[in-house]
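Membrane protein: structure, please.
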Amino acid sequence: MFAGVRGAGVLVITLGAWWADRNPVRVLGGSWDSYWYLSIAANGYGRTQMWPASDSIQSDSAFFPLYPVLTHLLGGGPVAGLAVAWTAAAVAAVGIYRVGERLLGARAGVLLVALWASLPHAVVLTLGYTEPLLCALAAWSLYALLRERWMWAASLAVLAGLTRPTGIAVAAAVSVLALRELLRGSRAPAVWAAGLLAPAGWVSYVLAVGARRHELFGYFTVQRQWGSRFDFGAGTVGVVDKVLTGGEVTIPVAVTVATLAVAGLLAVLLLLDRTPLPLLVYTAVLLVIALGGAGFFESKPRFLLPAFPLLLPVAAAMAKARPRTAVAVTVGMAGLSFGYGAYLTLLAKVPL
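Here you go.
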C-alpha cells in the first residue's frame, strides 16, 4: 500500500521535473533542508550562512546528526540521501501498520498506512529529509512499548533523539510510561533503565552544540538565529487570525491552517478513544512543538507527519465502512497529495 501510493507520487514529481527541465534526483534529494544535510554528510559540521538584511544567521548546528551520518556511510550525495530516506519510509510503514494492527486489527492497520502515505505533505516521505527516519524509529519504539519491550523502545528513542529536534517526543513517551509503571510499584530494572536512557540521544546532541559554542543552551540560540523559537502559539494564532479575517493568504498557508485545525480535532478524538498512554504522550509533544513554535509556519504540517497516531480514529472508522468507501477516500486523498506534493517541490517558493 505504501509503495503504491508514494511510488505514484514519486512518478508524478519525476514527470513534472522532466517537464520543467529539472533533474528529478536533485528535486527529490537536494531541495531546501536536504542541501544542508548533504553538506554535513560531505564536509561535517561548521557551515554558517548569514543574511544581513534580516539579521538571520543560519548554522548547520540546527540539524541533528543521524541522517547525515547514514548518508555519509552510503557515500554521500542525493542518491545516498534518498536511499536512507526511502528505506526508512518503508520501515516506518511496516511499523505504523504493526501499531495499527495491534490496536485496531489488520485492516485498520493497512488503512492507517494508506492515510499516512496520502497526507498533504506526505511528499516529504520520499525526499531527502529526516521525517522518514524519525517516523521509522518512533513507530517501532511505540510498538515496542505496547509489547513492553522496554530496552528496545529506549534504544530506538535514543536514535530518534539524534534524528530531529522533535525526536524528544519519542523519549517523552518512553519516560512517561516508565514513570507510570514505577508509580504503580514496578521495580523492574528495565523500566528504570529505559526511563533514564530514552532522552540520552536528544540531550547529548543539544549539550554537544552547547559545548561547541561555549554556551550551555547554545542549541536554542542557533534555533532563534534561524527564526525558530517557542512562543506558546502566539505566532500560530496570529497567522490563523489573518486567514480568518480575510488577509492575503498563500496556498501553503491555507493548507497549513486547515491541517492544524484537523489535527486538533483528531487529537480530541484520539483522547476520547482511550488511546494507550505512550501514543498520547508522543502525539501531544509533537502537537505542542508544532503549534507552540514560531517561524516557518508553512512547515508545520511536515512537523506533524510523524504524528501518525492522530489518524487512528479515521482508520478505525474506515475499517468499519464498505470497502468501496475506503478505496474512494484513499484514492481521493492520494490524488490531492500528489498534486500538492508536486506543487511544493516544483513551484512553491516557501521552504518545505
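Notes: The two ends are 25 Å apart (CA to CA).
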